[in-house]
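This section describes the prediction task in plain terms. A model, or a person checking by hand, is given the sequence of a single protein chain and must write out its three-dimensional structure as a string of tokens. No templates, partner chains or ligands are provided. The sample shown here is typical of the held-out split.
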Amino acid sequence: MNLPFQSKEKREFTAENRLEFFELISGYVDGGIQLLDAISLHAQTLPEDSKIRAYVKKLLYHAGLAKIEIERAGGKIRLIFPPYIIGLMSIAQEAGQLPKILKEITYLLKQDIEIKTKISQATFIPKISVVLLLVIIYGAATFVIPKLGDMLL
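The expected answer:
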């Protein structure tokens, strides 16, 4: 299995990285490991210079230091997780439904990636058409219209 941030060019936390993160965390939690321990285990697999590892270390530091819930600790890393994910995890942790909610979050993230891919594919031809139209207008304004002006004068 490919780990996030294996390529040196991409050290950002993309939607695909977020999905893989939650798939791995979900597997750990399904196996009976506590959430913060699962996050800690996953963080150890990440390269030292990845941004997510730094964010996860901050999360674990604040959660361990104050013995607080994931929602309050999650406030430190809202740059990589949307607020609704942090809220869902906090509520699920209190309700004892964390494995189920992690699977739901994984499903939602997969759907999000699929929708973004479909939108990107659906708008590809219109984008090319607009660029081609602009090139034609530029070419007409630069070459054709001046020649027509010279011919008419």
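For orientation: The CA atoms of residues 27 and 33 lie 9 Å apart.
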